[in-house]
Fold this sequence. Notes:
This protein is an alpha+beta fold. The chain is built from 3 helices and 7 strands, in the order H-H-E-E-E-E-E-E-E-H.
Amino acid sequence: MRTYDLSPLYRATVGFDRVADLMDRVLTNDVAQPTYPPYNIEKTSEEGYRISLAVAGFAADELSVDVKENALVISAQKAEDETPRTYLHRGIATRAFERRFHLADHVKVTGATHADGMLHIDLVREVPEALKPRRIEIARGDTVEGRALENAQA
């Protein structure tokens, strides 16, 4: 596997260290990504998203959804079954897992629901007013000079 040295990016940029960190994290991750449990990511509205995980065999109290900084961590641990069972075929995987999603800035988790073997996590992007684009009215040149003159006389 190739390794890339991103230190020149840190020297040549100011304020873009998060981008370099993201690239570093992506490039250093192993190629084999976990495939369990399967999941979907869908866009539900202009600013809304939903992550759906197939968690068949897990009860709601065996699932955990945590948000730590900009990371969404979903984990499950199956409780021990008190009655021993003999399976002829066991196709429903109930092994413990931990799935991580990196959340973009200003993305908040608004809720989670567990129904019919699916865990749905709703997300919304809430951009603060200060960061939203705004239109600046352009004044005519003669009115600016007039205002400056009025302010100077007052």
